[in-house]
Design a protein that fits this description.
Chain B: It is a multi-pass membrane protein. Chain B: It is an enzyme of class 7 (translocase). The complex is a heterodimer of chains A (about 350) and B (about 625). Chain A is an alpha+beta fold and about 350 residues long. Chain A is built from 9 helices and 12 strands. In chain A, helix 2 runs antiparallel to helix 3 and helix 5 packs across helix 9. With about 625 residues, chain B is mainly alpha-helical. Chain B has one domain: Cytochrome c oxidase-like, subunit I domain (Cytochrome C Oxidase, Chain A). Chain B has a 3-stranded antiparallel beta sheet with strand order 1-3-2, with no helix packed on it. In chain B, strands 4-5 form a two-stranded antiparallel ribbon. Classes of the chains: A alpha+beta (about 350), B mainly alpha (about 625).
Chain lengths: ~350, ~625
């Protein structure tokens, strides 16, 4: 793109008011919408105060043109303007105090309303952050009703979701701007975050607290679905992984189970039950791989398996040397895990 | 001692007195004398130049980051290097540039503004500079050897702890903090003592220039804030080197403890940088508006209020950590309240310009730039004080935009104004006004082009501290724009360096008081002689050099001894003649010993013990009473 096009595009972004799948002002949930209202109020109040300062400054500069050769005013308190300026200062401070009062009160009541939202019918989800991916667990009535997935968060529209936040190693921060504000995940502490999605769609969250080498590539795909679709998805996630069907998939399955893969990853319904890395039971149903590092596709998955360190340098998945045919087989097997 | 009108000048007598005072106070050309000097002006000049070099280095790192971010999915810089870049950028700007340069300028100006011959505790002052220099050089050597810290300038644990940041990188960082804090604390003590005890006779507290007030408040803040971070960095290095568990939740430590300790220092730190800048702005506004400051008393109260409030709002850096929200409301209120004293001061400056007879020269241009930029940064600060809104904006580019508006607008613009304003006093020559205007406009436009788009980027979801970002999130154009702006800032700083280098040789000679200013540093020659003032000036009003009555001086300080006049803390009534320390090489050796102590302890925990021995020996030599014989020689005719 040429520079001029970039500048035009920048203006368009300015005017469009930041819409997108990771935008704080493009609210798709109650919390983001409420905070968006607070933003609007702030913008108006602060914008007005800024304007007043600029007008006063501009007037001072404009007025100065006439006074270039005058003597210094060494006793300013003797100036004729001293008294009116003092009155104006009083008014200005009063205005600031009123403005701050309005903003503090608005802040306080909005904060209270967000904190007091009802959570009894909330969907309970446990999110655990690790360098550099998200483990997402949907609690069920019984242990076998628990859905475990990674790097994706699916929410039914209209139902509050209460996220219980844990951290495995260092501090991370969960932030899905379209749905609401962020909350840190801190080792040794349990935090929570309430999100009430109101608009179906695909959004994107990202770790917001610097968490080391690959902080930049620690995204979370958030999908707000209609409740029926969500229930279907949840049921589908409860099923064990499908058995490999083609000869290539069968060979990929063997490579997975006999190689180092199974030591770190779990695939429900198979002997692979590693807990260090993401659960892969329904890997192929996800939107991205490696916490948003690449979109999900057969080729991207194969690139990732061939050399995870070039796709996301420094991540904790080691390079496993495989021949091209083994690599294709392994990819074919994982790609069958819908 | 007596107060007198300056006597009719007998040129021969003046020359003789100048020669004798120069013998008493001067610094020779030999290497030994240069290392041993305790002249506050020489130490300050080194301090300013060193800090400015760090500013340029950190600026280069910023440009590298901007080049990396100009395009999505860029592979120019690998993530490890990028993380070192932003850590070193923040660390250098905060610890090695912003605080030191403010203190450096104060070390130069405060004794002159007070009308005294040297700073108090001059050897401590020399020591402070060497410690600062060694700490800065240490971390930069580590960085150039690819062992630079990579956990961000506030080094959150556990990421910065032994488990997730192995190697020596963070150890260098933690010790660098110790170095610079020792240096800062030393300067703070000197400035407080100088301001409270060495003001010229008649300069009551109520007549003190606002810059002195700002430095007084700042120095007290340093003394209260810095120990918190030294404690934090000591805990951190103990966790890393000797296996303590202050921050390890598994063993009963707490990851959030670090954040509390760090921000209890870290937030006041911002005002420690910002208050001296306000003092500079006041000086410049008065001089160029040619009017006494409007609402002096309120200005002083605003400085003090800001200094106090600064300690009550550190939690606004931690709203997303899950602390109880109801309690956070207190910090929201405290953070917003800062807007009251700041708003008052902004009004007073504009009012002074409005009612004055302003001359729009480069220093005043930078001050106007400061007002335009800083007020915007202050207002986004009010937004960030709001808990719910902060949860959206925290740790995004919106915050990056906010603190650059506050810190560049609030400190770097005043600093450039100060360079243009006091350069004639420092060097005897003026900076070029023509280049100065280019310098200003490039900086002002470049700054806004760089940082304004970041507000939008933050709202559009871009987190800070990412080494790259995916294409298609709508961040590409604004990032490119921001990089172009950064290049403009780079060009502007380059222009300033050219201007300074040229003006040193070819600048217009300045004379004692080129701007017709009112404070005492302009009552002596440019650059000032080693003894600052031949006679100690007597102050009769708030704007000392603008008083209508003839200027008086105080006689009675020996020209053959290093003597300074101490006055009472409130009313500045002459009190005693105080001996001012002779030059000594021992502050330099003590700093070397301290550096060995701090650096060796990174590699060997036992060095904490054995390293203290050379420091003790050097300190004893430093404090050794001066033999009377030396004084006898000095009093000989």
């Amino acid at each position: 793109m040429s520079g001029r096009k970039h500048i035009c595009a920048a203006l368009v972004v300015l005017l469009a008011g930041c819409s997108g799948q990771q935008a704080a002002l493009d609210a798709a949930g109650d919390q983001a919408a409420t905070i968006g209202d607070l933003w609007t109020l702030m913008l108006w109040v602060c914008g007005f105060m800024y304007l007043l300062v600029l007008i006063f400054l501009a007037h001072a500069i404009w007025r100065a043109r006439h006074a270039l050769d005058a003597e210094p005013l060494t006793h300013g308190s003797g100036s004729r303007a001293e008294h009116p300026l003092r009155m104006a200062l009083g008014g200005w401070v009063g205005l600031i105090v009123v403005g701050l009062f309005v903003l503090s009160l608005a802040t306080f009541f909005i904060d209270r309303s967000l904190a007091q939202a009802r959570t009894d019918d909330a969907l309970k989800i446990k999110v655990t952050a690790a360098q550099w991916w998200w483990k997402v667990e949907y609690e069920g009535m019984a242990p076998d009703q628990r859905v475990v997935t990674a790097n994706e968060l699916r929410l039914p529209v209209g139902q509050p979701a209460l996220l219980e936040l844990h951290a495995e190693d260092v501090i991370h921060s969960l932030w899905i701007p379209n749905l609401g504000g962020k909350e840190d995940l801190i080792p040794g502490r349990i935090n929570s975050l309430l999100l009430t999605p109101r608009r179906e769609g695909e959004y994107r969250g990202q770790c917001a607290e610097f968490c080391g080498l690959q902080h930049a590539k620690m995204a979370l795909d958030a999908t707000v679905m209609n409740p029926d679709a969500f229930t279907r998805w949840r049921q589908q996630q409860l099923t064990p992984a499908p058995a490999p069907s083609t000869p290539e998939q069968i060979r990929g399955h063997e490579i997975f189970m006999s190689g180092p893969c199974a030591a770190c990853h779990q695939i429900a319904g198979t002997p692979a039950s590693g807990q260090t890395g993401p659960n892969l039971t329904h890997l192929a149903s996800r939107r991205t791989i490696a916490a948003g590092a690449r979109p999900y596709s057969f080729e991207d998955l194969r690139d990732w398996l061939r050399d995870p360190q070039s796709v996301k340098p420094g991540n904790h998945m080691p390079v496993v040397q495989l021949s091209d045919s083994d690599l294709n087989a392994l990819t074919a097997y994982l790609d069958s895990l819908k | 001692m007596t107060t007198a009108l300056p006597r009719e000048a007998d040129p021969a007598e003046i020359t003789a007195q100048h020669a004798q005072l120069t013998r008493t106070w001067g610094t020779g050309q030999s290497l030994f004398e240069r290392l041993a000097t305790v002249d506050h002006k020489i130490v300050a000049r080194r301090y300013v130049i060193t800090a400015f070099v760090f500013f340029v280095l950190a600026g280069v790192l910023a440009l590298l980051m901007r080049i990396q971010l100009a395009q999505p999915d860029s592979h120019l810089i690998d993530p490890d290097r990028y993380n070192q870049l932003f850590t070193m950028h923040g660390t250098t700007m905060m610890f090695l540039f912003a605080v030191p340069i403010m203190e450096a300028i104060a070390v130069y100006l405060v004794p002159l503004m007070c009308g005294t011959r040297n700073i108090s505790f001059p050897r401590l002052n020399a020591f402070s500079y060497w410690v600062f220099l060694f700490g800065g050089v240490m971390i930069w050597i580590a960085f150039l050897m690819n062992a630079g810290p990579e956990t961000g300038w506030f080094s959150y644990v556990p990421l910065a702890g032994p488990e997730y940041s192995p190697g020596k990188r963070t150890d260098f960082w933690a010790q660098m903090v110790t170095f610079t804090e020792v240096a800062a604390l030393a300067v703070a003590v000197e400035l407080i003592a100088t301001i409270l005890k060495q003001r010229a006779p008649g300069m009551t507290l109520a007549r003190m220039p606002l810059f002195l007030w700002a430095m007084l408040v700042t120095s007290f803040m340093v003394i209260i804030a810095m120990p918190a971070v030294m404690l934090a960095s000591s805990f951190l290095i103990a966790d890393r080197l000797i296996g303590t568990h202050f921050f390890n939740p598994v063993e009963g430590g707490d990851a959030l403890l670090w954040q509390h300790l760090f921000w209890f220092f870290g937030h006041p730190e911002v005002y420690i940088i910002f208050l001296p800048a306000l003092g500079m702005v006041s000086s410049i506004v008065i001089t160029f508006a040619r009017r006494t400051i409007f609402a002096y008393t309120l200005m002083v109260l605003a400085l003090v209020t800001t200094g106090l409030l600064a300690f009550g709002l550190w939690v606004h850096h931690m709203f997303a950590t899950g602390l109880p929200h109801l309690g956070s409301s207190f910090y929201t209120a405290a953070s917003m309240m800062i807007a009251i004293p700041s708003g008052m001061q902004i009004f007073a400056w504009i009012a002074t310009l409005w009612d004055g007879k302003p001359r729009f020269m480069t220093p005043l241009l930078f001050v106007i730039g400061f007002i335009v930029i800083f007020v915007l940064g202050g207002l986004t600060g009010v937004m960030l004080a709001s808990v719910p809104l902060d949860l959206q904006l925290h740790d995004t580019y919106f915050v990056v935009a906010h603190f650059h508006y506050v810190l560049i607008g609030g400190a770097v613009f005043p600093l450039f104004a100060a360079f243009y304003y006091w350069f004639p006093k420092f060097t005897g020559r003026k900076l070029s006004e023509r280049l100065g205007r280019w310098n200003f406009w490039l900086f002002f436009i470049g700054f806004n082009v760089t940082f304004f788009p970041m507000h939008i980027l933050g709202l559009a979801g871009m987190p800070r501290r990412v080494y790259t970002y995916a294409d298609g999130l709508g961040w590409e154009s604004l990032n490119l724009l921001s990089t172009l702006g950064a290049l403009m800032i780079g060009a502007s700083v380059l222009l300033f360096i050219v201007n300074a280098a040229r003006s040193l040789k070819q600048g217009e000679p300045a004379g004692d008081n080129p701007w017709g200013a009112s404070t005492l540093e302009w009552a002596t020659s440019s650059p000032p002689p080693p003894y600052n003032f031949m006679h100690i000036p007597v102050v009769t009003g708030r704007e000392a050099l603008w008083q209508p009555e003839p200027r008086q001086v105080l006689e009675g300080l020996s020209p053959a001894h290093r003597e300074v006049l101490c006055t009472s803390a409130l009313a500045a009534v002459p009190d005693i003649r105080q001996h001012s320390a002779e030059p000594s090489i021992w502050p330099f050796w003590t700093a070397i010993a301290t550096a060995i102590w701090f650096i060796a302890s990174i590699f060997d925990a036992r060095a904490v013990l054995w390293g203290s021995l050379p420091v003790a020996v050097c300190l004893i030599a430093w404090m050794w009473p001066t033999p009377p014989r030396v004084l006898q020689q000095r009093t000989a005719p």
